[in-house]
Structure formats: structure tokens, C-alpha cells
Prior knowledge:
The protein is α/β, with parallel strands linked by helices. Helices cover about 45% and strands about 15% of the residues. It is built from 17 helices and 13 strands. Strands 1-4-5-13 form a 4-stranded mixed β-sheet, with helices on both faces. A 4-stranded antiparallel β-sheet has the order 6-9-11-7, sandwiched between helices. It has a 3-stranded antiparallel β-sheet with strand order 10-8-12. The protein is globular, with a radius of gyration of 22 Å. Bound molecules: uracil. Uracil binds near residues 84, 179, 183, 184 and 207.
Amino acid sequence: MHFIDLLNKKKRGLALSTEEINCFVEGYCQGHIPDYQVSAFLMAIYFQGMTVQETADLTLAMANSGDRVDLSSIPGVKVDKHSTGGVGDKTSLIISPILAALGIKLAKMSGRGLGHTGGTVDKLESIPGLKTDLSLEEFFGQVKDIGLAIAGQTANLAPADKKLYALRDVTATVDNMSLIAASILSKKIAAGSDRVVFDVKCGSGAFMKTEEEAKELAILMRDIGAKSGLAVHSIVSDMNQPLGRMVGNRLEVYESIETLKGRGPEDLKELCFALAGEMLVLSGMYTEVQAEEKISEVIVNGAALEKFRDMVAAQGGDVAYIDEPERLLQAGEKYEFLAEKAGYVTKMDSEAIGTASLLLGAGRRTLDDVIDFDAGLIFEKKLGDQVEKGDLICTLYSNDRALFSEAIERLKGAIELGELAYRKKNIVLARIC
Ligand code: URA
């Protein structure tokens, strides 16, 4: 088979066979097909699209391009959760112990922060002593012992996706539904999941800018999942402002502990309940109504917080920070961002707010950057809130005062105050299953 024939076929809008797609992925991973041909191929896919069957074939070929984690040795129901990326998104830290407290096995491989979005691994590592680079043996052992482990991605999972994603990034072919769906699903399949709940975010801080696009992606992932042996449910959620009140690694751990104690902000609580509830429904253990009751129960009786503490202890973290979470709030410098006029908060561009947090030191500009775990923002006002001139909108935190000015400039462009009342949106926009 010559790759130029596949290129021609896709250019003319014809569907490729399973064998052809396997040849493409194998040939590219082994270095037999050059980047310039694959670039043209990606652009042909971008304009001609792929059928659901082609996308499912691409997903499986990418999942099979490296190691595949086998979770079958862990007894019990396993359900995974994945977010398409957001700002202030600490839901994994809250949902995972809730589910573990309810008997679901959580063997979760998570990522680091990417650009303006944070990553669960960085958030967890902000707890002094906690390690996420678990060997597969430690990872499985911990899930068997306490029902829960969150580790960084150690295995060589879906290397085809790594290569293709890097090429998509520089050939303007990232924003294609089939390519996005195959990229996300291939990594989930390789990580051993067979049931996944996706939090498909839409809005200023998300990959999908509109609710319609987010729904389209959720439906596509459900349909490809069905063809690839992966049961997929999705919650479409709003990302037109940061989730919760806190952005930044230790700050988000603090807010997660508050939420596990039943004291979290309403939007964060609502989304966590929706996602955890969906995972319980997908596990087959509970109905929707039962799930909500069960989640409330493990928050009220402290079992979910206790599971979080168990996980921190098992991964070497200092549990004193869980018992006295104020110790997580220790940035050396702060700046109060005040309202310049009276009005209503009408815009909170989450991408720009995520970038402001990164500029304060909470994220990486380059792969080698060292994170300031204390850096970030705490919001006192959110979309739709009324403010008077001089009211505190948010406080910026960092250990390096020199980093404030650029972050403040970003915030000035990110937050708008208008005269007309703004109608608050629900955080959960749709459920697709
Ligand atoms: N996240 C991924 O993992 N892949 C994409 O293509 C887009 C978002």
C-alpha cells in the first residue's frame, strides 16, 4: 500500500478502510511516512471529514500504538472520568474520593497543566511529600488497598497521538471533531478504561467555544465509543468563567477539601454532583436519584474526605495539610484587584484568567518551568454579581512580586463590568448518553 493513494482517496472525500487506517498509523509511528505527507493528510481530513467508522478505526489504531494498561486484575466496577480541560477545574480531586467511598475502583492516570489549563497531577503534587510517579505495581496495589489512586502517566500510552497532536498543533488541524475525539478516546482506551464520563466544557476557557460544538463532540465520542468497546456518557458544562472561586494548585486543593466537607461553592458542587452521579449511573450500581442521595451521604458523614486523606497518605503526602488546610494558603505576596466602577460582572474570560494564573507562577511557560504551588487567584465576584466601585473582585497570590504587573494587565482585559444585569447561566448545560 502506498500512502500517496490514501492521500488521494481522502482528498476526494472517500472513506478509508480499517486496514488503510492501521497502515497509516503504523507507518507514521515507525517513521516510514514523513511529516509533510501526514500534514497534507490531516488537512484533507480537516476538509473532507471522517465517517464514524473511520474515526473509530483511527481511535483503536492510536490506542494500540503503545502500551495498553490492563485493569482486569482489579476486582469491582471501574469507571473513569475525563475533562476536556478548563480553568479552576478541580473536579477529579473531589469526585474520585466520593466514588471510592461508594465502592467504585478509581485507577486514574492524570496529566499536568497544559497552557492556560491546570492539571490534576500538579495540583496533587502541591501537597508536600505527595508523589504521583507510581510504578504500575504501586498503582494497582493502592487501588486494591484503598480503592483509589491518581498517578501521572508513566506508561507509553498512545504514542501515535503524541506525534499526531504535535503535528496538528503546527498545521492548523487541531480543531477537527474526528481528530479531537480519536485523540481523547485513544488515550482513555490505552489507559484501560471501559466506561468513561466526559466533562465536555464549552466557553471562553475551553476547546469547544459553543454549546452546540460541545454537544457534537459528546455525541461523536459516544458513537465512536460504542464501536470501540468504550461506554461513554458526557456532561456538557459551562466554562465561560473559572469553576469555583479558586484557581492555582494549592488553592484548588484547599477548595476541594472545603467541597468534600460540604462547604464548596455552588457551581463546583453542582458539577461534581452531576459528574459523580453520571459515573455511578454508568457503573450500573445506582439510579440517578439514588446516586444523588449516596453522594450527599458520603459528604455529610465524612467518608469522602477520609478517602481523600487515605489517598494522600498512601502516596506519601503530608496529611497535616488535609487536617489543617489553612496551611495550603501560604503565598508570600498578594494583590487586591478592585472594581474600577459600579455595575454587574458581564465577562470573565477564563482563558485569560488561566493565563494570568500561569503568569503568577501557577503554570509552566516551558516544559522546564518550576511551578509556584502557592500562586493563583481567589475570586470574590463571579459572572452576574453586582459590584460597587472599589469592591474586591479577586485577590492574586504569588511568591514573586515581580510577576503581578503582567498578570494584572491580563485580568484587566479578562473581566468586564457592564451596566445591565447579566443572567447567570447553569453550570450543567446538557447530558449526553
Ligand atoms: N485534548 C486531547 O487530548 N486531544 C485533542 O485533540 C484535543 C484536546
